[in-house]
Amino acid sequence: MDALANVVAGLGLFFVGVWILSDNLKSLAGRSFRQSVVKWTKKPAPGFALGSVLGAVAQSMAVTIFILVSLLTAGLITVRTAMPVIVGANFGTSILVFLTTLNVKLVMLYIIGISGIIMVSDRFARIKPHVGALFGVGLLFLGITMLQEGAITLVDQPWTTELLESFRDSYFITFLLGCTLTFIAQSAAATTILAIALAGVGVFQFEQTVMAIYGANLGSGIVSMILSSKLKGKSRQLAMYQILFLNFLGTALFVLMFYAETLAGIPLIKFAVQNISGNIEQQMAWVYLFLNTPGIFFLLGSEKIDQFLKRRFPATQSENDSQPKYIHDQAISDPSSALDLVNLEQLHLVGFFTRYFELLRDGDSTADKTVKIRNLHESFLSVSGQVSELIEDLGGARATEADHERINLAMRNGRSIQMIETTLYDLVMALSEVSPESPIHELKNMTTEALDTILLTLNDVLEDGDEFDRQLLGKMTGDRGEVMQTIRRFFLNSEQSVEGNDQLNLLKITNLCERFFWLLGDLRLENGQMVRTIDVDLGGSQTSSAAQ
Fold first, then answer.
1. Which end of the chain has less Cβ packing within 10 Å, N or C?
2. Which domains are present in the chain?
3. 0.85 cut: is pTM over it?
């Protein structure tokens, strides 16, 4: 039982280490990190090197894929530029396999101890994410060491020996065993290390160990396929590149070479690794490395593979919406031009507003409509977040006095646009909950059409600043507190029978409309002038806005 406990504890520490490592890497993935990723992925060779490092520290292709998916979702990489990173990551996982043929337990214990002490000290708050990542690496290696020690002890048990002896001559069973263990452990590297440990104590022969490693590669693909089953569009393309070409096709290729060498005597993988080393553990580490070489050849056809993936798994509307149309990471080099792009991107963000009402008019079910509205909101947040980051970077860059004024205006408008969108999102969600049978359904229709008209006018004002449109918009916006109060009184009249959820939605809608009108008028044009220059009181007389 002690041996089994070591195996279970080792696997537990391994995956806790992976989790701590990836969690701390996320906190390090600021704008500078993302800019480095963009820079490194411009060419295949640096992308391959970056992937090797990523694979070496993550030690799981499933984890690596999902790190890359987050970068892809943020628009920092494309599927094609990510391909060398994935190939490199597969190579990176081989580093751990080679290291585990050495004794690194003592080093890892020092790393865990020192990094653990630093993590609980407030004096090192700035470097905690870096130290946390190192602590995760230490746990990862310690888990693998415990797993190896438990496995070696476990195979000395009579029942284990009998079980393994029963399929010593069956390559398919060891292939299936490698696949199954990887499915459970979710790491081909961990399964490979276990297979190497078994080979080192004489339980597995050369051929069995090789097939267990190939099965682990297939199992890794199956794990990635299950974990990525809910991914769509570009994220799905990225995952399927690893699964279809590097896992499934790569495994099929090496299994064919295995039988060609075993049955036909053609010198291939076994011949190569036995000439490199006489130690079976290191031979298996080389087998695992060779297993990850086909990705290099697939890179030669990356353009055609990319086209195939795009056809088979087309990008979703939400993914397209989540990408900025104008700004880019290199824009900061010229603040004046960057501010022009920021202005265009903010106009693009305002264009999201009317799309909410398009979704509200769709004949979809309430559940489908809610999902689409939420996706649009998340896309807005993605783009607006990237715009805000660029504005902040511009605020710290060298710029002229005129540019600083424009940066201040962009910051103010950015906050206003985000507050308007948040209010609008809550409002549209409340409107979507109003059923056709509801006594406030007519209010929903009137509100939808009125606000859509206002937003279309806002787009015209922001695009060309036409004075007539601006005055028209001014008449539409402003303080509507008394109007909303009148509407509430009318519908809450006992004759209207508004109660329960309808009553709650009525209060939400009128309050959010009031806030929406006020926030809308606080936007400023490129010249700094407010959108709302004219307000209209309930009697219809016009008054100039005091705020200019």
1. N
2. 160-314 (no CATH), 318-544 (1.20.58)
3. no
